[in-house]
Design goal:
About 45% of the residues lie in helices and about 15% in strands. With about 200 residues, it is an alpha/beta fold.
């Protein structure tokens, strides 16, 4: 039994890593079980293990902070290494908010043996990304100016400029502002609606 917890900002690539792990396991004949409700997941996993005792299994806890917030911590901990834990599985979890997870989840080996921060793409990775997506553009310039942006933001930059005609500088400024802002419901988005001038 092993467990990895991936954390990082939204759009940093956690889901891509999870999808690659899932693809590798399934291609090798393994199975992926997705935990949304720990109360149903534990008996389902136990039943499966009785039928398939040796098959490779990934137990996926995507947005584990949301699972914990909705269902509580006790059953989750029991699945990870308590009375409901099943051996010969790989527990893979992700979160955008590791600070919402108790140390009993984050800081205890055998629950999650590795806690890995997924960083935004570095300059070389951004240049490679732009080279692949926009072969005719100046990849170095785009890579230089997009420091700290996630893959999701890079994709939006391409869509905004190449599909919707927004200026590069305007789109870049908007995306950088989105990265740092935490707007309230009174401030979010642009003013659009009935009765506007």
């Amino acid at each position: 039994r092993r467990g990895f917890l991936l954390y990082g900002t939204q759009g940093s690539g956690k889901t891509s890593i999870v999808q690659q792990a899932i693809s590798d396991v399934v291609r090798g004949g393994g199975l992926v079980l997705i935990c949304e409700n720990p109360n149903h997941f534990a008996p389902g996993l136990l039943t499966f293990r009785r039928v398939e005792p040796d098959r490779d299994v990934i137990c996926l806890f995507e947005d584990i902070d949301a699972i914990k917030a909705r269902w509580g911590e006790d059953k989750l901990l029991s699945i990870l290494d308590g009375e409901d834990q099943i051996n010969h599985v790989f527990n893979l979890a992700s979160t955008n908010y590791p600070e919402l997870l108790d140390k009993r989840i984050v800081s205890r080996p055998r629950r999650f043996d590795r806690v890995i921060k997924v960083l935004p793409p570095d300059k070389k990775m951004r240049a490679d990304y732009f080279k692949r997506k926009l072969p005719r553009e100046n990849h170095k310039e785009w890579a230089e100016k997009t420091e700290g942006l996630s893959f999701a933001a890079l994709a939006e930059l391409i869509i905004a400029t190449k599909c919707f005609g927004e200026s590069f500088e305007g789109a870049l400024q908007r995306l950088q502002k989105m990265k740092t802002d935490n707007p309230s419901s009174e401030e979010v988005g642009e003013d659009v609606g009935f009765g506007k001038g």
